Predict the structure.
Amino acid sequence: MHAAFPETYWWAGFYLVRGDELQLGPFQGPVACMTIRRGKGVCGTAWERNETLVVADVDQFPGHIACSSESRSEIVVPIRGDGGEVVAEIDVDSRELAAFDEVDRLYLENISKILSAELAF
């Protein structure tokens, strides 16, 4: 994703649910937050709500965790296990405001479903 859309998908990666936190998994882009607690920041909130979050301006998101000051907008998509619980997340950041839309949501949610089925969470 990062290589295919480098202007928009400035940072792209995965966070894996490990106990009571998200742990950084494979990613492309600059160094990122290693762990995130449930309900904290965009990733932790998407995990807590078990829903995709599209944030047009991360500076306006209450409790945003600034892993990089260059990040301006973000989309986080849960990857669910067999029981519907979040087991991982796709996280994509952009240096542009409002970089993500319903097309990004649709395709990233489709990727999430494929990963969930193929990896048998």
